[in-house]
Amino acid sequence: MQPGDPQDRFLRLFTANDAAIRAFVRSLVPTRQDAEDVMQDIAVVLWRKFSELPDDDFRRWAFGVARYEVLAWRRDKARDRHVFGDETLDLLAGASEQAMPAHDARREALELCLSKLPAPQRELVRQAYAPDTRIDQLAATLGRSAMAVYKTLHRIRLTLVDCTRLQLAKEGLR
Amino acid sequence: MKSSTRLDWLARYADGSASADIVARLEAEIRRDPEFRALVVEYLQLDASLSDAASHITPANCVAFPARPRHRFAAITSLAAAVALVASLAVWSFRGRAEAAEVSIEVLEADCFPARALGRQGLNGNLRLDTGSIRFRLDTGAVVEAVAPADFSIPDPMRLNLRRGNVTAEAGQRAHGFVIETASARVVDQGNRFGVAVDDDGLTDVVAIGGKVDVFEPARASSRPLASLSGGDAIRVDRARKAKRLKTVSLRNDSLVPSGKHRSALVTEVSDNVDAPGFNRCYAIVPRALHENSRLHTDKPSIRWQAPEGTTFPAALRNADVVRTFFHDRRNLDLRISFELKKPATVFIMHDGRKPAPRWLLENFSRTPHTLESGPWFRSKDKSEYTVKYQVWRRDCPAGEVALGPSQDPGTGLRGAMYAIAIKATRP
Question: What is the dihedral of CA B264, B269, B270, B274, to 10 degrees?
Fold first, then answer.
């Protein structure tokens, strides 16, 4: 793989935009695992079609591909009533794209907000979001019910949403 | 629609536990309310970002059990695999991580996260404690308590290597001979409970809290020990492996604690005028430790306080900081004990009520109406316990040095008990 060749260029662009694409996909599907599944397909499609990248706006192009792949994933689950309908997905995709200009700043703010969490909450996030973690197993380790851990994580996420909003507001980005 | 209800639906949707009915209601709200829709997007995007951000979080290490190797760039490797599949190009590989031998421990207590992670855990490497404390049992039965900051490893169930911090071990019969090794000392259990501390300068403190220990130079356990300590003894071993008496130690309950919040806010630097070869008795400062059934002396672990029958433990004394003296000093008629008060405080002396008060006590302290008892000193044939009654004396002292004398004046016999010391903040 030589610097400047298509594969090298693709990997650099994908690496730079991976987090944003993942966040975009996550906003359209029910669970993180669903997002992972869809991301696998998106990565392959992006590489296959990389030569068709119309301009240098890789992120915008990738969102378009991701949106299409989520709809394809949605069609495979047409009878699953736990997945939003196409119209709702369109609304969410629009809102998600609107939020994207501040995505990188929001991620930086998130790092800061995580550092402000009380140590036990920060440690719970670290463990809950580690690869392959199963919440029921983590809950058993902690001597708590899975439901209690889910609720705690939900409260932490809401705290982090508030904190990141505040940070962005301070920086005039919201 | 209550906001909290919608948020609960969102939480369950994001966790994959929402029913079809909840998904339908949530979907209706998303379509109806653009503001809520924006929040849903923000919440789910944050959920995605956390997966990556969480991998940057430094483990709290309160209970630093070895985690599975984590691949921070899992997504990139997945992509690389996909690219390789499509383009037939091999891309990345990861170097494996060597694993140390695993030692099983049973966590009995851990006062920071994961506070409830009790039970059996595998430990295969270093355990670094940045916050809180942990108490665990090894398969040999040895129970170890460590208070942050501490850094150690357990190569096998009979040995702990302490690099920094405070560790207290209670070996018990099965783990007789349990070893704590530092850079400058090898401490071998010969009895029961002992503590070892290593500070940032590499000094090793060894305290025999409830039994005997032998202290050797590292890796020379078969040679003559540097010191053999009995319960109530403490030494400090420097980097040159020279040992000297350590006069003051800080305990919480019966465990060694580091400097900082665990230590007494009132008293420090207990000393005396005893300087004899092989004399290694220590004074223990224990914050808020005076109460029913608490210890008096460093060398008499079974002797405890109690309120005289028909009375309650005096509130004026309860939870006072304690300076544990050593009982065998009762016969030293030249004894002079001193300590530093960090702030103005009331010093209480519990003196054997069977003996006349020594002159220094009569002249400098006031007798209070409070009495206490200690025991059991022994049990009589009818199983009744013999206790000693103490008169409580007090003095309000300014910050600075406080000096005390012997337990009794010459010529009053040598059968009395050693006095006990307690300190409480002076009420404004």
Answer: 160
